[in-house]
Amino acid sequence: MAIDTSKLRTSIPFFREIEPALLERIVPLMFVKKLRKGEIIFLEGDEGDEIYFIGSGAVGIYTFDKAKKVTLAFLREGEYFGEMALMKPGLVRSATAETLMATRLYALRRIDFQTLIEQDRHLAFHLLDYTMERLRKANQQIYDLTFLNVKTRIIKRLLNLGQEYGGQQIPVKITHQQLADMVGAVRETVSKVLQDLQDQGLIEIRDKLIRLTDVHTLERKLMEES
């Protein structure tokens, strides 16, 4: 299936800063994967060979700590994952990736990426810049898990999701268990906090869709607790 270069550039930020001539060489090497909700893209421990860019849909990245599921990232259209597979042959996946809804992915194999960076080293530095930003976010997540209480972590996560989706409405259905996995808590505690936030009129939940009805107060509560 042919990939529309202009659509790729507009929908995925990673490609916007790449020179048009280089992008024209990248696109023919990419291929599309269409997946249904709940499909496993790769498992923790699998040998990695591809990087994935999300054309549409959403993907959850998670691992297990002593049999407890821990969600590391909640990725949406325009983001990418699996980049460590490009760094060195034989590296295994450090987490599992699963679709959260019907999802369209653009994939690029390591061998093709290596051919591209031999032609243009700027591509490797471009990927490094994006990967460093992801590392910064991971470090922030570790800080939050260590120093913030559960309620504050939930509020911060909801605000971050709202910002990522550009508004008060979080358009992806999120279960209490999924949110618990994101903030490192048990489902019962998350359910109690969400009910409390609803009772205060700060959020609204309908059919597992969360709407932030009072962002200003949520931000104030976050500042008070952080």
UniProtKB/TrEMBL annotation:
MF (Gene Ontology): DNA binding; DNA-binding transcription factor activity
Which SMART domains does the record match to this protein? Answer: cNMP, HTH_CRP
Gene Ontology CC entries for this record: cytosol
One Pfam family hit: cNMP_binding
Q: Which PROSITE patterns match?
A: CNMP_BINDING_2 (PS00889), CNMP_BINDING_3 (PS50042), HTH_CRP_2 (PS51063)
Q: Which InterPro entries match?
A: cNMP-bd_CS, cNMP-bd_dom, cNMP-bd_dom_sf, Env_Response_Regulators, HTH_CRP, RmlC-like_jellyroll, WH-like_DNA-bd_sf, WH_DNA-bd_sf
Could you tell me which species this protein originates from?
Cohnella candidum
- The Cyclic nucleotide-binding domain is annotated at 14-117
Q: Where does the source fall among the domains of life?
A: Bacteria
Domain (HTH crp-type): give its ranges.
148-216
Keyword set for this entry? Answer: Activator, DNA-binding, Transcription, Transcription regulation
Q: What is this protein called?
A: Crp/Fnr family transcriptional regulator
